[in-house]
Structure formats: C-alpha cells, structure tokens
Design brief:
binds zinc ion; alpha/beta; globular; 10 helices; Aminopeptidase; 389 residues
Length: 389
C-alpha cells in the first residue's frame, strides 16, 4: 500500500485533495435534494380565526378574578365550558375526566375523543390552567395571569378545530384526541413561583396513567401536537428542540405552503422548552410543540407571565394561521384520498441540532485537515529535493 502511494504520489495527492473539497460540497447538495418538498393536498380549509377569538374571550370571562388557576372555581367552570362546547358539536361525544392531586389541590385534565373506530390516534393538546402569579410583572407580581395567550389561545384553537374536523370526520382515517391539560403553568420562573409546584404537572400525570385512556393492545399513537401561546400578535414559531424534528418540520412546511411565512420562518429561533409534549415524547410518541419565543427581553411576546397577557394582545389572524396549519396537516395525512401526499409519516426521524452542528463541524474541518496534510506532504517533498552540501 505504502509502496503504491509512493509510486502514484501525485495521483494520490490529487485524489485526496479532491475528496477533501468534494465531500463538504456534496453533503449539503445531497441534503438539499433529499429534503422532501411538501405539497399540501387541495382542499378548502374551514378553520375560522374570528370564531376561535370568541372562544379565547369566553375563557377569559369565565372568571375575571382568579381566571383558571388550579383549584379555583374558574378552573372547574372552564372544564365545564369545554364539555358544553364539545357537546354542542356532538351530544354523544366521548369525554373522559382525569382527576389528580398536586399539593393537595384537586386538578383535572379533560379529554375528548373523535373517530374512535380508528385505532391510530393523533393527540392535539393545550393547557387550560392560567398562572396563579404574574411573576414577570414588574408592578403586580402576585396577581393572577389572565392567560389569554398562555393557555386560552391553544384551547380556543382546539375547540374550533374540533368543529371543522367533526364535519369531515367520516373522511378522516384517524382517531383524534382533544386533550386539555390542567396544572401546566405553575412552576418557578425568574426565581419565584408557586410553592411546591413544578411545570407540566397535568401532562406528566396523564402520561403516567395513559393506559387507562386507551387500549394498548389495539390502539397506537401516530403523533402529538401541542399548541402553546398560538394566538398572540406577531406570531412567530420557534424550532423547539425537544420536538420530533420530522414532525415539527412538516408543520413548518405546511404552514409555509399556506403562505404563513412570517409565522413559520425559514430560519426560526431555536429554543428548548419543557412543555406538555415532553411526557409524550418520553412515552415514545412523536410530538411537536408549536410555541413562540417568550423568554428574555426583548421577547417577541413581552406579556408572558404578566397581567398584560389579556385579550387586547390576541390576534384572530394568529389563531387562524395556527388552526388552518393543523387542519391542513390532518387532511394531508388522513383525508380519504391522500395517496399523492408525501409527508414525513411516521415521523420517526429526529434530525436534531447536535447532528447539524456535527455536520457543520465536519464540513469546516475536512478542508482544513486536507490542506494541512497537503502542506505537510509538500514541505517534506521540498526538503528532500534540497541537495545536501
Ligand atoms: Zn406560561
């Protein structure tokens, strides 16, 4: 081998340089062409942002003192509000209440099931509790948060989605869960919080007992999509890192295909959020969180965990963008004649940030290593050529 390399020294060198230069060029080209372009199926979307907006207002009006804080009458009345709304859609709709206790406070997740004759399940989720303390509010840190965006917006989209999907239920080859979580938003931030409470208590408790809510020998989960803070003005979703990337990517592509390029930017802000999708991911269900950048100043959503998270900062357009994107996602993947649709189902791949960082590192380091080797080889050749005195 060494003999061969010595003999074909020039050839080996050229091949080596070529390899070092070509690899970093070829990999991105391959990835670019391998990145499937998603084309939405041609179907009219019915989700209405104005209607969803009224569902945000309804939730805020349930109780204007403690809002939907865990353990309050407002929280109980909000659960009843969901039941009333879903029974308006279908008086016989199957709903299940999941009761649990955190810090001796009675809490409750609410689950509605649609199209139960199908054994493959997509979960659409949102938290409905509002935060007990506006810990990021400089003037009223002990006041409760109205939670117009942080809570009510996602729930409003779920109700409107249930209405539009129900009317096409017989064309959808999937069982859909509408799952409302209690006790998501009571943890500690900026050093303070509600004593003894953690984040995402409701979803964590639900997944611990998920076997009580489905038949694991017959049924299985395709995906879980979480909607959190989806109704604020200036809607711009982030690339949430816990999320199954093939699922989140598909939602972004669908949204961009619908011309929602501002809400689904091509180069989104990256963030890792402990949210209600995490317990489902840990359970093995591909899950994605549609959420905005709400942390650090200047935050894109400056009202997070303040008393200003009220109806005046809710946009019916943002609600509609979110709702129509999820509606299209369901049709793309489950509408009767969707043979032509090529999405990322079954959303097994997770191309995370680490992978892409590794790739960039490889692309940068390969030519450097290549050039270094070539320089070393040339130098050693040059030395050999200098005649000894
Ligand atoms: Zn929150």
């Amino acid at each position: 081998m060494v003999f061969l390399i010595k003999k074909n020294y020039k050839l080996t060198l050229i091949a080596f340089i070529a390899l070092m230069v070509v690899i970093p060029i070829v990999i991105p080209i391959f990835l670019f062409f391998n990145d499937s372009e998603i084309t939405n199926i041609d179907i009219e979307l019915h989700f209405n942002g104005d209607t969803a907006y009224t569902y945000v207002a309804d939730q805020l009006n349930i109780n204007t003192t403690t809002f939907r804080t865990p353990g309050t009458q407002g929280r109980e009345d909000c659960a009843q509000y969901f039941i009333t709304k879903f029974q308006e859609i279908d008086p016989t709709i199957n709903f299940m209440l999941h009761n649990f206790t955190i810090q001796s406070v009675e809490c409750q997740n609410v689950l509605f099931k649609m199209n139960e004759n199908y054994t493959n399940i997509v979960i659409l989720g949102a938290h409905y509790d509002s935060r007990a303390k506006a810990t990021k509010d400089s003037t009223n840190p002990d006041s409760p948060v109205p939670g117009a965006n942080d809570g009510a917006s996602g729930c409003a989209v779920l109700i409107e989605l249930a209405e539009v999907l129900y009317s096409r239920m017989n064309n959808l080859a999937v069982q859909i869960w509408f799952l409302f979580f209690d006790a998501e938003d009571q943890g500690t931030d900026v050093g303070v919080g509600i004593s003894g409470w953690d984040w995402i208590e409701g979803s964590t408790q639900f997944v611990l007992e998920i076997d009580n809510f489905y038949n694991s020998s017959k049924e299985d989960f395709d995906a879980m999509i979480l909607l959190d803070m989806v109704g604020g003005t200036n809607l711009r979703f982030i690339n949430e890192q816990h999320s199954t990337s093939s699922l989140l990517d598909e939602l972004f592509e669908i949204g961009r295909e619908l011309n929602y390029t501002s809400a689904f930017p091509s180069n989104p802000i990256v963030g890792t959020i402990s949210d209600d999708h995490v317990p489902f991911l840990n359970y093995g269900i591909p899950s994605a969180d549609l959420i905005i950048k709400f942390w650090n100043q200047p935050a894109e959503w400056p009202y997070h965990h303040t008393t200003d998270d009220d109806i005046s900062h809710i946009s019916n357009t943002s609600l509609e963008i979110t709702g129509k994107t999820v509606e299209q996602f369901i049709y793309n993947n489950y509408y009767d004649t969707t043979d032509q649709y090529q999405g990322n189902f079954p959303w097994g791949d997770d191309f995370n940030l680490l992978d892409s960082e590794l790739l960039i590192l490889l692309m940068v380091s390969l030519p450097i290593v290549g050039i270094a080797v070539v320089v070393l080889v040339l130098r050693s050749r040059l030395k050999k050529k200098i005649p000894k005195s």
